[in-house]
Write a structure and sequence with these properties.
5-stranded parallel beta sheet, elongated, single chain, 10 helices, 12 strands, 323 residues, Rossmann fold, 30% helix, 15% strand, alpha/beta, 2 domains
Length: 323
């Protein structure tokens, strides 16, 4: 094999990048998050790996200036930053880290539902106040978890929710692709979205960021939900109209929300999401286990072994849908 040039667009300080040494002597790699340096290295790049700490602008510039590019891999599961480049119309394969984070996010889904079911916020307030506060708590058993975006994250969440005795109803563009999967009780098409909003006690959004998913949940959908229902977003922030959600939370259209992703990140100081009592906010860290980046790198390394053998790559992005 002739020597391959790998351009890694990421913050060079990441510990996980030490795993690149496993690529072997036939791969020359350089790591940068600097725009000028990325543009300088791109013309010789056979492969581009996008990691953590580089802006979408640097990623786009590197891709635009890489005429001999043969493959692009994203260490994140979301590839909206890559689909915004010419890659979407090209024959260059794009792969991602699908599966690296779904198990952790599945656990977080359960944690967020229990947070509301057991009213942990009230418990913590009472504990801090030294108050013996007796109140009723809820059960997940018998409740319905509706899922918008029934991919790896949705299925990992559903599998765990089933263990709690919950009913699972999932929506996806192609219901036939998940029929009889042994997890969901029912798989519906997207034409039944408003029905799902109305029957869900907990509604999980686990969708990628595409033009089709932007604003999937807005005022009408929130108005259709039960007053004691909770919405959880573990996919991408643009799936929810945040102005409508803020109104829904302030006026108690729904019980609450658990959000790990937002339209603009990070949230600015003093954002109303920090102040509302019926919301659980995490800083896009629900999948940040101690080894989350190393786990993602292992997916890339396994795919690289396939690449040099001329084998089919796994986790190929379907550019027609953008994920």
């Amino acid at each position: 094999m002739s020597k391959l040039n790998l351009l890694v667009v990421a913050d060079p300080g990441g510990r996980y990048l030490g795993l690149l040494n496993e690529l072997g002597p036939d791969v020359k790699y350089e790591i940068t998050k600097d725009l000028e340096r990325a543009e300088e290295l791109a013309p010789a790049a056979d492969l581009i790996l996008t990691g953590v700490g580089a802006s979408p602008q640097v990623v786009k510039a590197a891709i635009d200036k890489a005429p001999q590019l043969r493959w692009v891999h994203s260490l994140s599961a979301g590839v909206d930053h890559l689909m915004a480049t010419h890659l979407r119309q090209s024959d260059i394969p794009v792969t991602n880290a699908k599966g690296a984070y779904s198990q952790s996010l599945g656990e977080y889904c359960i944690a967020a539902m229990l947070y509301f079911a057991k009213d942990l916020r009230r418990m913590l307030h009472s504990q801090k106040a030294g108050k013996w506060d007796v109140f009723d708590v809820d059960m997940l058993e018998g409740k319905t978890l509706g899922i918008l975006g029934y991919g790896d994250i949705g299925k990992a969440s559903a599998r765990r929710a089933k263990a709690f005795g919950m009913k699972i109803i999932a929506l996806r563009r192609r219901p036939d692709k998940s029929s009889g999967d042994g997890i969901a009780d029912e798989i519906w098409g997207m034409d039944r979205k408003m029905e799902l909003m109305a029957v869900s006690d907990y509604l999980l959004l686990a969708m990628p960021a595409t033009p089709d998913t932007k604003g999937t949940v807005s005022r009408a959908e929130l108005r259709a939900m039960k007053p004691d229902s909770v919405i959880l977003n573990l996919g991408r922030g643009n799936a929810i109209d945040e102005i409508a959600l803020i109104q829904a939370l302030q006026e108690n259209w729904i019980r609450g929300a658990a959000l790990d992703v937002f339209e603009a990140e990070p949230l600015h100081d003093g954002h109303i999401f920090y102040k509302l009592e019926n919301i659980l906010v995490s800083a896009h860290t629900a999948d940040h286990t101690k080894t989350w980046l190393e786990d993602s790198m292992r997916i890339f390394l396994a795919n690289f072994a396939r690449f040099i053998k001329g084998e089919a790559l796994e986790n190929l992005v379907d550019k027609s849908v953008g994920y």
